[in-house]
Write a structure and sequence with these properties.
The chain has 237 residues and is mainly alpha-helical. It has two domains: 12-76, Winged helix-like DNA-binding domain superfamily/Winged helix DNA-binding domain (Arc Repressor Mutant, subunit A), CATH 1.10.10.10; 81-236, Four Helix Bundle (Hemerythrin (Met), subunit A), CATH 1.20.120. 67% of the residues lie in helices and 4% in strands. The chain contains ten helices and three strands; from the N terminus they run αβααββααααααα. Strands 1-3-2 form a three-stranded antiparallel beta sheet, with helices on one face. A hairpin with a 3-residue loop joins strand 2 and strand 3 (73-76). Helix 2 crosses helix 3, helix 4 packs antiparallel against helix 7 and helix 5 (112-127) runs antiparallel to helix 9 (193-210).
């Protein structure tokens, strides 16, 4: 029995509902990098207690979508140059090694069973540019559902890592979770959907022959785009 006067624990359902709403706003770009997350306004918006909002914000901090700082509260992660480089270094450590292991398993001819999950993610990503594309998350006049692109991009890379059959690497890569979703939000200014699909299709085709080198070059290219854009933004300030 809880002690008299103890604050009741927030409902897990309510916490996840608030976290999901704020997560969507972050991943869609509705909440810009560095935006403060205010407990009081979020509590009013969602009709919950500040205690529930605080727990929801803690989830987002754990997912590295937000940061909490003493005396400054919680804000949307900035995904600055250092964050980009750190994430890409971790991805390279996991994805390059996963593909190296897959190459040891399969040689120069990877079976369809290893490649089909990534192919399927790409096919569904490409289909988002068709007549049925949702405009719910459009940016300007862009009808593409970029939240779904973010999810399928992560699914593609998880599928490539899964080809390794290494449980610890697969689990570590899955733990990147929301950070990998956030990555596509920040590379969006550099890509149309067609270009993004084409680049990942080329990567998939190169995996059996070039393996780790293909993955390394793929990650270095996107890192250079993001780091370069942040350097230009810094010079403009």
């Amino acid at each position: 029995m809880p002690a008299t006067g103890a604050r009741p624990e927030p409902s897990p359902t309510a916490v996840e509902r608030v976290a999901a709403s704020v997560r969507t706003d972050i991943l869609s770009g509705a909440l810009a990098p560095g935006t403060p997350l205010r407990e009081e306004s979020a509590a009013l918006e969602h009709g919950v207690s500040r205690h529930t909002v605080r727990a929801a914000f803690q989830r987002l901090v754990a997912e590295r979508l937000a940061v909490a700082e003493p005396y400054r509260g919680v804000r949307v992660v900035s995904f600055d140059r250092a964050e980009v480089i750190a994430l890409q270094q971790l991805r390279a450590a996991l994805e390059v090694e996963a593909v190296r292991i897959a190459g040891e398993r399969f040689g120069d001819v990877w079976p369809d069973a290893a490649l089909d999950p990534a192919r399927d993610a790409l096919a569904r990503m490409a289909a988002l540019d068709g007549p049925g594309a949702s405009a719910d998350e459009a940016v300007g006049d862009d009808p593409v559902d970029w939240l779904e692109v973010e999810r399928l991009h992560a699914e593609f890379h998880h599928a490539v890592v899964a080809a390794s059959g290494s449980p610890r690497i697969i689990d570590a890569h899955a733990a990147l979770g929301s950070e990998l979703l956030l990555f596509v939000l920040h590379i969006r200014p550099h890509y149309g959907l067609d270009a993004l699909v084409a680049e990942h299709r080329a990567l998939l085709e190169q995996l059996p022959a070039r393996g780790p080198d293909a993955v390394r070059e793929h990650l270095e290219h996107s890192t250079a785009l993001l780091v370069g854009s942040r350097s230009r933004e810094g010079n403009d300030e």
